[in-house]
Design goal:
- By secondary structure, this protein is mainly alpha-helical.
- The chain has 10 helices and 3 strands.
- The protein folds into 2 domains: about 1-155, Orthogonal Bundle (Ribonuclease iii, N-terminal Endonuclease Domain, Chain A); about 160-230, 2-Layer Sandwich (Double Stranded RNA Binding Domain).
- α3 (about 40-65) packs across α7 and α3 crosses α8 (about 135-145).
- The chain is globular, with a radius of gyration of 18 Å.
- It starts with a helix and ends with a helix.
- About 35% of the residues are buried.
């Protein structure tokens, strides 16, 4: 892509986001997959994940007064799950803007849900670094403005991480700790080995997946299986 065309596309993206970054390099980094080079988006994605969760928690707290904590947690899980973020990334036109290495591009990385969801979180992280929490929260709220925020959305089935969190909270235990302990495979076909630790149980379980999120879910499911067996 010609540099001028690239710049125009990034400007158009910022218009869709409703936020013009003072440091455009942050946006470029947010859209760079690790297969492309060293200055990739994984740290921004880590940051954006936390900003997203806090912004969505705030949104649900405001929009669903009186809903108990467990239902709020399930509603948030529904909004921030990978397929929801993937859909938002498609609406923003991120597939044509993500920079990938040749192998990842050939294997269809521009369409991969995990890559697009991570890129969206990285964009949120970039806005947070660029302008602070309030503009990042406002961006998240704009992204979800067309979503029907209603108590019924909390009734969807729980994922393993949510179920584990609720089990621990119901017993006044600390939340689990997730760590990526290893990765393997080519950049465009990585496998994430993740451990889930519940300190008060003195237990660590592991799971693998094609993304960090999938690995965390697998590890949480293994921890739940252990809990239910004792």
């Amino acid at each position: 892509m010609h540099p001028t065309a690239r710049s125009d596309d990034l400007l158009a993206l910022q218009q869709r986001l409703g936020h013009r970054l003072r440091d455009a390099r942050l946006l470029e980094q947010a859209l760079t997959h690790r297969s492309f080079g060293l200055d990739h988006n994984e740290r921004l994605e880590f940051l954006g994940d936390s900003v997203l969760n806090l912004a969505v928690a705030h949104l649900l707290y405001e929009r669903l007064p009186g809903l108990p904590e467990g239902d709020l947690s399930r509603a948030r899980a529904n909004l921030v799950r990978q397929d929801s973020l993937h859909r938002l990334a498609l609406e923003l036109g991120l597939p044509s803007l993500i920079r990938l290495g040749e192998g990842e591009a050939r294997s269809g990385g521009h369409k991969r849900a995990s890559i697009l969801a991570d890129a969206l979180e990285a964009v949120i992280g970039a806005v947070f670094l660029d302008a602070g929490f309030d503009p990042a929260r406002d961006l998240v709220w704009r992204l979800f403005k067309d979503i029907d925020i209603a108590p019924g959305m909390a009734a969807s089935g729980k994922d393993a991480k949510t179920e584990l969190q609720e089990w621990l909270q119901g017993r006044r235990m600390a939340l689990p700790i997730y760590r990526v302990v290893a990765t393997s495979g080519a950049a465009h076909q990585q496998i994430f080995d993740v451990e889930c630790e519940v300190v008060e149980l003195g237990r660590i379980e592991r799971g693998i997946g094609a993304s960090r999120r999938a690995g965390e879910q697998a590890a949480a499911a293994a921890m739940l299986a252990h809990i239910k067996s004792i």
